[in-house]
Amino acid sequence: MGAFFSSQVNRRKLVTSEKQALATRLSAAGETFPGSEHRPADRKKWMAELGPEKLRVHQVLWPGTHDSATDKIGIPFVTRPFAQCQSLSVYEQLATGARVVDVRVQEERRVCHGVLATYSVDVVLSDVKRFLAETESEVVILEIRTEFGHGDPPEFGKYLVEQLGEHLIPQDEAVFHKTIAELLPRRVICVWKPRKSPAPKPGELLWSAVYLKDNWIDTDLPDTKFESNIKFLGQQPPVADRRFFYRVENTVTPQADNPVLCVWPVTRRIHGYARLFIAEVFAKGLGDKLQVFSTDFIDGDFVDACVGVTKARVDVHGRAPPSN
Q1: How many CA within 13 A on the CB side of residue 172?
Q2: Rounded to an integer, what distance in angstroms lies between the CA atom of residue 170 and that of residue 237?
Q3: Is the Cα torsion angle 128, 192, 110, 267 positive or negative in sign?
Q4: Is residue 269 within 8 Å of residue 225, measured between CB atoms?
């Protein structure tokens, strides 16, 4: 028993040390980066504001949400704090400015996070379609994967095409250098990641897992995650040369050997340092590699930071010539 308590004390000291390390980074480096002062007039329509005819897909710093459809998961005040990663619905996240949505499903087409299940994926698709109906030039990356430990929903790829067909942008590597205007009226890049079912093929309406990658590490230590994100980002090609989306997640994950198991108290250790991360990425010469940036409990400031970088990229290159 004494060894257990000793390990917990040491663990808390390590967490405190890593939180202090991030605070020290912030004091030393600040949060200034290209576009850092920009604030979109309307986050719901920020792509339209930047100019669909100027904005290329690879120029976007896509603000995303992690475990997006967990706003109503579990029982409030009982199991929900252990699995909830967003407090807003998918529609509200998109209206706030998110453009990458991460949804996990199980065999019965219900959204889940680990062992806990919530509403049907129909709710997510309805939210996406509602957002599309209320906007004209906003493109969404909708990632849907079968959750670990679960089986694929039967004929789920066919179901997604039936539900979203008219909105879906076909799987095509040429998309990365197209402008938003050249994609219209189609506005959803849907990445379907089954566990055992056949993966989508080139030319089909769904995109396969190879087009949305990341290097997630399972840790609740904020400075460790921060450093890992920078290291793996540095190993990627620049966005202009890339034929896939690469995601960095500004999140940390509760660990079973730590007494703090609720998502928010853990993930907030890194949550407030999104702008610092972007600033350090640019300071290290990696700004041309940052592409998808995701968070738990998304807010407007996170979106503004991503939109600011996107605007700065567009401003540098001006009006885009037609793609080949």
Answers
A1: 13
A2: 23
A3: negative
A4: no
For 309, the token pair is: 């970088």
Cross-strand pairs, 110: 120
203: left (phi over 0), alpha (psi -120 to 50) or beta: left
pLDDT digits (tens), the chain, 324 positions: 566 567 777 888 999 999 999 999 999 999 999 999 999 999 999 999 999 999 999 999 999 999 999 999 999 999 999 999 999 999 999 999 999 999 999 999 999 999 999 999 999 999 999 999 999 999 999 999 999 999 999 999 999 999 999 999 999 999 999 999 999 999 999 999 999 999 999 999 999 999 999 999 999 999 999 999 999 999 999 999 999 999 999 999 999 888 889 999 999 999 999 999 999 999 999 999 999 999 999 999 999 999 999 999 999 976 555 555
Q: H or E segment at 190?
A: strand 188-193
Contact between 289 and 278 (Cβ < 8 Å): no
CA-to-CA distance for 37 and 33, rounded, in angstroms?
8
For the chain, where are the alpha helices, taking DSSP H only? 2-29, 46-50, 90-96, 121-134, 156-164, 180-183, 222-234, 263-271, 274-283, 300-317
Q: Which of 62, 134, 71 is nearest to 103 (CA)?
A: 71
User: Are 184 and 194 contacting, i.e. CB atoms less than 8 angstroms apart?
Assistant: no
What is the spatial distance between Cα 110 and Cα 123, in angstroms, rounded to a whole number?
Answer: 9
Angstrom distance (rounded) from CA 98 to CA 95:
7
